[in-house]
Amino acid sequence: MIIFLRHAQAENNTKRILAGRTEGVPLTKTGIEQAERIAKYLAPIDISAIYSSPIERAKHTAEIVAKNCSLEEVVIDERLTEIDMGKFTRMNYDDMFAKYGNIFLKFYENDPVISEHEVETFPDVQKRVLDMVDHVLKKHNNENVILVTHMDPIKSMLAKVMNLVPQTLFELIVANASLTIITEQDKKFSLSAINAMDIDRYDQTW
């Protein structure tokens, strides 16, 4: 299985800011607790390796999971990194929507405003994520591997597996510290789970 794990709650999530690849955006106290809980959730599974985005909030999540799953190393891979938000980096969601409209939907539609503001495009995100998945399948055949990353890299994989349209991608929320599980057979992907986590978290604000 390829187990995508979105990083746990970080300060940018609570402040509704597009952090992008900005340094110094740590997990919140709640986020650390979420990471510890998802690590326990994963404990029954035999995990061969864990890869992570280099961004602090993802890397810290990965380190917590690795420790609890008795994995000696977190392998950092740039293909799992957050989107480069270009000129939108560190903008507040509400301010951005007021000035530019629904930028998130425009991102999935590959609207020209995205590249005009030096934001990494959704097709480019999907290309690097699929390249990462191909690497994992070749190196860890028939093994369970965790990929700790961010919401939109996970959505890019879901778009590939489920052929999702932009409006659906916009409405889809991948919860912090939740699992999206993909299996592959004969070069065909299947979705086994999305937003997998402890049951009591489903009635909480993600």
From TrEMBL:
Q: What are the transmembrane regions?
A: none
* Cited InterPro entries: His_Pase_superF_clade-1 (IPR013078), His_PPase_superfam (IPR029033), PGM_Phosphatase (IPR050275)
What GO MF terms are annotated? phosphatase activity
Active-site residues from the entry = H7, E82
A matching Pfam family: His_Phos_1
**Cellular compartments per GO CC:** cytoplasm
Instruction: Report residues binding substrate.
Output: R6, H7, A8, Q9, A10, E11, N12, N13, R57
Top-rank taxon, per record: Archaea
Q: What is this protein called?
A: Histidine phosphatase family protein
